[in-house]
């Protein structure tokens, strides 16, 4: 196994375990066991748990954002509403456990990796790109609150309904 394969295996294991059980509840030995990567190589690639957490969140950010962008780009719905349609699908996935970035912040607080803040800033920027021309500047802020609120509600009660309800509010905001 080369370093690239080892990284992939480690990140796959970290993503599954951190997202399902929480960052603090999962030790490096558990990730090593789940990935099949020797402990010496794990620590050579990720010298501290914090570096593995950051790499996991950075990869998740790229995948999550790319998935959202692709869905919006191919949707027949207005772009802002397509965001909530995508969220409804995500919230319905069997392994949905809420927002990995908010979960990380909830566990680690101010010690959470910077990628948590970067992810939220990127989400805000994406929403700002999608609002119709001439919309009030605050609309992207309001949409971010809807997205985050729906995600939090769905973490407690998985399924598409929180996204559907947030979509209805977004429709009202767009009609103003």
Automatic annotation (TrEMBL):
Keywords: DNA-binding, Transcription, Transcription regulation. It comes from the Bacteria. InterPro entries: Homeodomain-like_sf, HTH_TetR, Tet_transcr_reg_TetR-rel_C_sf. Residues 27-46 bind DNA. Residues 4-64 form the HTH tetR-type domain. The keyword Coiled coil does not apply. This is TetR family transcriptional regulator. It comes from Streptomyces virginiae (Streptomyces cinnamonensis). The lineage of its organism: Bacteria, Bacillati, Actinomycetota, Actinomycetes, Kitasatosporales.
């Amino acid at each position: 196994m080369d370093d690239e394969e080892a990284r992939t295996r480690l990140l796959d294991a970290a993503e599954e375990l951190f997202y399902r059980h929480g960052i603090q509840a999962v030790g490096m030995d558990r990730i090593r066991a789940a990935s099949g990567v020797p402990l010496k190589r794990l620590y050579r690639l990720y010298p501290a748990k914090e570096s593995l957490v950051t790499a996991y969140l950075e990869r998740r950010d790229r995948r999550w954002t790319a998935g959202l962008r692709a869905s919006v780009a191919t949707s027949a719905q207005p772009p802002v509403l397509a965001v909530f349609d995508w969220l409804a699908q995500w919230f319905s996935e069997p392994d949905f456990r809420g927002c990995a970035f908010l979960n990380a912040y909830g566990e680690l607080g101010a010690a959470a990796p910077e990628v948590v803040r970067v992810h939220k800033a990127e989400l805000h920027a994406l929403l700002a790109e999608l609002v119709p021309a001439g919309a009030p500047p605050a609309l992207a802020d309001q949409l971010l609150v809807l997205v985050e609120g729906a995600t939090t509600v769905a973490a407690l009660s998985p399924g598409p309904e929180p996204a559907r309800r947030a979509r209805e509010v977004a429709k009202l905001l767009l009609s103003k």
